[in-house]
Structure prediction request, 463 residues.
Amino acid sequence: MTIEKSYRTVIEPFIIKSVQTLRLTTREQREQYLKEAHYNLFKIKSQHVLIDLLTDSGTGAMSTEQWAALMRGDESYAGSPSFQRFEESVKDVFGFKYVIPTHQGRAAERILFSVMCKKGDVVPNNTHFDTTRANIEYRGAIAEDLVIPEGKDPKKIHPFKGNMDVRKLQRLIEDVGAKKIPLCMLTITNNSGGGQPVSMENVKEVKKVLEPFGIPLYFDAARFAENAYFIKLREGGYQDKSIKEIVREMMSYADGCTMSAKKDGLANIGGFIGTNDEVLAQEEKDLLILTEGFPTYGGLAGRDLEAIAVGLQEVLEEDYLRYRLAEAKYLGERLLEIGYPIVQPPGGHAIYIDAKTLLPHIPQSEYPGQSLSAELYLEGGIRTVEIGSVMFGKIDPKTGKETPAEMELVRLALPRRTHTQSHIDYVLEVAKDVYKNRENIKGMKITKQPKFLRHFTAEFEPI
Ligand SMILES: *Cc1c(COP(=O)(O)O)cnc(C)c1O
Prediction:
């Protein structure tokens, strides 16, 4: 069933049944909290945040059907019917032969790369997500980003900016040799590249390049349903197909996937590996037992498996996806009206502000994204995240010199089914004031940082 389409207003296709209170803080308080957090928004207590756009990961609202399913959760250690329902739902949507539950996406990544990668290997992707890159590098392998050039130009409008540059992929295989490439990944949608979709045509082309070399294709499938909806809207021949048909076709070109159910699983926790390879599946299950748990729960409670089983079906509903993309578009288009340079066109789950262009007076070495992110919090209690040189800057271990990231973005991620339009209108009001004051925003320096995934814990000081 879908909501009548002839009206222009895209409504939230749900009502609110349970609420969580929000509380405003004063500017003085936020100044203090920022200082205490060393200007790292990951270190701010969430009760001190008004509108939390840090991430869309695990922050969504579950449906009444999901809450009902939780009660059905069977917590048997082995062979739980909750696992059977989970497995059936994953297979129904994704079509892979083997399903291995994990507590979240990165656990799926760690297990997959532990089994498939060794030192010196190269793993191509459109753009590796931060934990994906870190897990590959932790194995001593190299993570190569091969997104099309349009995908790196925030202003360029292109319907599928998440596409992989297949010529670059071909060249990489020729340069390093197929033996060194244990698998190729495609992130759908391309989170770190602005939540941009990958076209079905591109998936097929990538598969065609890999096939003669026997290199398996895996999806980083966190936002598979949003990607499928973009295909339906933007790619010829898919207008009359259901989201499920599109998802199944995408998956039919892949040998497996990693999945964070905290995104398009519409759940607060969970993930899985899907694969058609029996031998790999067995090795992965052996590793799973070592760190995650028995293969019929993989670090999750039976009730979590139930919530994911339902969520994976709900996320295919077009009313939901239409509202989801409309929310991002609404925020994106109004930020553009204010004057913000954003990654265009708006992606599925978030809007990305191009902080390098917005704040030309702050050099990349002083992290303009981090500065903007701190300012949005200070001004209106809005939490966002930097996706730029703090997250992806590369430090030469010998010289200590830092190479900045290609883009300095600030992501405003939209939790699923969580905020109303007036929340978004508030964000826009705050953003307008920050925009007016942009010339006074100062750069940051890092005063303390760990060896990897530094953005989670690094400490900063305004310059
Ligand atoms: C969130 C995410 C992951 C990691 O999943 P977690 O559940 O956070 O561990 C991997 N890839 C992409 C594209 C993601 O968005």
